[in-house]
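Open question from group meeting: does this chain pack into something compact, or does most of it stay loose? Before anyone orders reagents, we agreed to write out a predicted structure and look at it together. Recording both the input and the output here so the notebook holds the full record.
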Amino acid sequence: MRFLINNRIIFDEDNSTLALAEENLEPVTLTTIANRLLALLVKNNGILISRDFIFSTVWDDHGKTASNSNLNNYIASLRRTFSGLGESEILVTVPRQGFMFTAASIHSVADNMTQDETVPAAPLPVRRRCDAILPKVTLLFIGIALVLAGVYFFTERYDTAYQTQIASYKSCRVETLNASERIDERYIADALERLKSRGFDCDVPATVYYSRLTYHYTNYKKLIDFISYCPKHRVKNMDAHCEDEFEVINEG
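Structure tokens returned:
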């Protein structure tokens, strides 16, 4: 199967290649494992994929032995390849959780490039606790919310995502995972407004993750605001877990 990524890059799963759609350049040939890994990420675009699930699907199911070092090396190699094709931020590492492919659009295409169809959307599951190990395929919104939902509940150290403190409110530390959005006074004000309006308890120590994704269409743009509230300690003898919400805003 061939996939058109962001209307400019062709991923040919059957031939293990990546290439720009409109340029007659030699395609990049992927190794078998890199091809298998990329296929998993592309087919679950916008979904947080845990390391354990990647190990099982890409390595274990094919009789191979996986390691964090191997996975990190393949991810780094794919990042370099996509960067060379003009997509430097399409593959995101979520701290201590896993990885997510974040293309704005992915279409399956015929070999002659005359037919295309949108990759079918996956069914929407029930919202999961932030410490879930194996995320199910879901829509983009819930997938991104899961990215924000569990950063503090995994102890192993892996590559970091774009994670920056932007503000504080009472005992809440407000951080953003955005890499491409401009972090200005309005962005920070919006983050604090979202935090206060949700009624989260900032009288106890907590980390709040805020992220805004912007998608541009022909006649309008869509903003998706995510906020995830993660208390640091047990509350009322219950395990601390993250609460996450999102809001979709259409602008003309």
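Observations to bring back to the group:
Residues 162-251 form a domain with the Heat Shock Protein 90 fold (CATH 3.30.565).
Helices lie at 32-43, 51-59, 68-84, 140-149, 185-198.
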